[in-house]
């Protein structure tokens, strides 16, 4: 309509440099505060999130759950020790690869040294895991001295000072650990670790 005035929309005021810099500082600070709060939430925060999200899986609290977790870890660690021992110690020894003058002897001995140290480490972890289950703990406890006797064999393998008794010691301890697990309802199966696990 002629003569009618249309209301004017006020144009937005440009933001000053000061306001922009405050916003640029405030945003990262808020994000950092939120991330820190989420990461460092104590027991109260964990309880609150558990009540909001019922599907969140809580840490094992019951005795039966702890025992099951102990058995699972025992089986995993003992299985890795058994796999490393068979793959890089027993098998090459039986194939004659550790004998002087054999093809690939140096590489096989280095691998056997790594496998020996790895197997010892995993067996120690398995023995520790066994303590979480009374039956398994009772079965594994007598084997700790045998496990401890393997401590320096990794170095011995690496230096090429390996004999039938050393290979036999590993085999014997592994078989005893497997039998102890079986008797306590925690059957151990060989799991060959990757090369990165062996060296890591």
TrEMBL record:
It comes from the Bacteria. Residues 1-41 form the signal peptide. Residues 181-200 are annotated as: Disordered. Keywords: Signal. This is Lipoprotein. The lineage of its organism: Bacteria, Bacillati, Actinomycetota, Actinomycetes, Kitasatosporales.
């Amino acid at each position: 309509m002629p003569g009618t005035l249309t209301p004017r929309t006020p144009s937005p005021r440009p933001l000053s440099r000061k306001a922009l810099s405050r916003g640029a500082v405030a945003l990262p600070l808020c994000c950092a505060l939120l991330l820190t709060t989420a990461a460092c939430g104590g027991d109260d925060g964990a309880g609150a999130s558990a009540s909001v999200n019922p599907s969140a899986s809580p840490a094992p609290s019951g005795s039966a759950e702890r025992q099951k977790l102990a058995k699972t870890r025992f089986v995993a660690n003992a299985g890795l020790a058994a796999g490393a021992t068979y793959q890089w110690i027993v098998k090459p020894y039986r194939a004659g690869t550790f004998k002087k003058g054999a093809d690939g002897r140096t590489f096989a001995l280095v691998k056997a040294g790594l496998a020996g140290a790895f197997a010892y480490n995993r067996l120690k972890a398995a023995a520790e895991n066994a303590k979480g289950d009374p039956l398994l703990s009772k079965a594994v406890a007598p084997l700790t001295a045998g496990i401890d006797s393997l401590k320096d064999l990794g170095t011995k393998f690496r230096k090429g000072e390996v004999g039938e008794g050393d290979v036999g010691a590993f085999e014997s301890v592994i078989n005893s650990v497997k039998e102890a697990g079986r008797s306590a309802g925690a059957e151990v199966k060989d799991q060959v670790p990757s090369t990165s696990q062996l060296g890591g």
